[in-house]
Amino acid sequence: MNRVKARPVIGVMGSAREAPDSDDAQRSLSLAELLGQAIADRECVLVTGATTGIPNIVSRAARIHGGLTIGISPAASKAEHVLDYSLPVDAAEVIIYTGFGLKGRNVINVRSADIVIIFGGGIGTLNEFTIAYDEGKIIGVLEGTGGVADRVEDFASLSGKRDPSEIIFESNPKALLEKCLSALAERD
Known about the structure:
Radius of gyration: 15 Å
Helix content: 40-55%
Structural class: alpha/beta
CATH class: Alpha Beta
CATH architecture: 3-Layer(aba) Sandwich
Order of helices and strands: EHEHEHEHEHEHEH
């Protein structure tokens, strides 16, 4: 029997703010689009929080380039997703409605991903980082994108964790993805 190898699942965690979380908004937009394209080009599956901001931009770029995109919603239904959380329904090809709220959704995002990429971000992204770090995920950090991404080393050193996750730092989205995929291949 031939076994089909599963495609890597890449979780992108970043600021849901409509304006990107860095001083240079246009640069953040370009980096998000490049990351989405790279994920699609490598035939990976993208998982996001079915939200606005950076994850939305990455998801839209991945879809445009033929990638499979999955959004994990904090809401229990499409109506709640749109009306109560004010989140989009058109960036992800598939949306899974969890009903677990934002923090519960974050756990599912991280656990569903083989690789977690941190792109800028605030408190929600910090929550996703700490879950990924605690669970020993391969974590890619897109350097120079502001917010949590630029403080990951500080947070990791504060943890005192003896068996840290593999954290890969890179300022180029495509190079970051390649380094993370190489690390995943070594684990497999």
